[in-house]
Predict the structure.
Amino acid sequence: MKISIKIGDIFVYAFAVVLIIISLTGMYLMGLNNDKRSVVIEVDKSDSYSIEIREGMEPVELRVDAGGGRYNTVVITYEEVRIEEANCPDQLCVKTGAIRSPGQAIVCLPHKVTVTITGVDERQSDIDDIAH
Amino acid sequence: MRKYIVRTYPIVIVICLLLLSILNGCAFGDKEKEHSKNVFALNTWINIRIYAGREGPKILDRAVQRIDEIERRMSITIEDSDVSRINSNAGIQPVKVHDDTFKVIEKALEYSRLSEGTFDITIYPIVQLWGITSEHPRVPSDEEIRERLRLVDYRKVVLNKEEGTVYLQEKGMGIDLGAIAKGYAADEVVRVLKQAGVKHALINMGGNVIVLGKKPNDQPWRIGIQDPRSDGVRRHIAVVEAVNESVVSSGDYERYIEDVYKKTGVRYHHIFDTSTGYPADSGLMATTVVAENSIDADALSTIVFVMGADKGLDIVEQLGNSEAMAVTVDKKIYTSRGFDKRLTVTDEEYEIMP
């Protein structure tokens, strides 16, 4: 059977795509809201680790296995997050340096590893209120 | 051609509806978030911040309702409040009051006895005479003060538990619950919030900070202690971490006769020494009390301020239901035993004394 697409069809599909984007963005934003400040590490969009950043926490060093002997070593402290070492060819993730605030990310393209900070930064205000 | 369109459209529509319902599920799901409300009551600004699901606004309304009730009963500016009726019947007859009012007066008298009259709700004739918080405050003569001071005596407040009545024995006497009503109201708000299942909340009642639970991120709340010499600027000199507690400060910096201060450098403020009839002058600029119950923190912050660092902090330690700090005019901070460890001083001009 021969398939021909009409203008109306394009509208319907475009409409569907727009809805999908709105839905996904909405879900993403909702997920971000009122969350604790956390580091989310994703490997090839399948594996995902989330570590909460707490005041007074011990520094965490994580060796992220990207498969086939490929790895990225992530160091997480209360102040900042960085990739300390990796055996990727371009070393861009290491050169990115430290990230600190929600919304920032480190990406290792060769290993398909992303390190992002999500949630709300409690450090933005040092105190919650003043007694007077 | 026609067939193709008819076959495809339903599928597309179904997909759209599915995605929309997922979106709705997220947007209207009962996730906890911050709800906040400001009200003007008890002669001050009150902010209530809670973390709750979609019922948040209703819970806030209930809390505000409770504050309104307490205000209607205890306000000195509302003509038919319990307090106004008690005062206008001084030396005439006992007045039947609401349970709220009775409880607060009972507690106030308890603190009067504990502090041997330093804390005294019958200070009202003196408060009126100075009018510090009124539009026309003035420094009265010694004679006027002496005359009014005669009427200040908590032992002349007669409570009758069975009847639920309060009686002031002498004509001209009057009570003012300003140093304790906010504390009671805060405790009641916390009760309302707890009943509604709220786990995290911060209430600011005209500077009294009350926290329920920890922060939503499971950290203790960090409460700043106001700089008593910042000329009204909201800045802090120290920080204390609090969980399920009230942090209440009193001081000479909040309300005082400004033009007299500008001319003479003397700060006639709103916290009176019941033994002199003058604003308290115990060498302190400010005190802060941290207690589980806001009513205790409220009363004790005044008591420590009037009594001074030594005696005031002694009482706090004896009672054991609170912790406190006192800031002297030369910017030294004295604390009750162990409280120095909870305190982080953030202004280097101030120093914690051993």
Remarks:
- Chain B has a mean pLDDT of 91.
- Chain B touches chain A through 46 residues (CB under 8 Å).
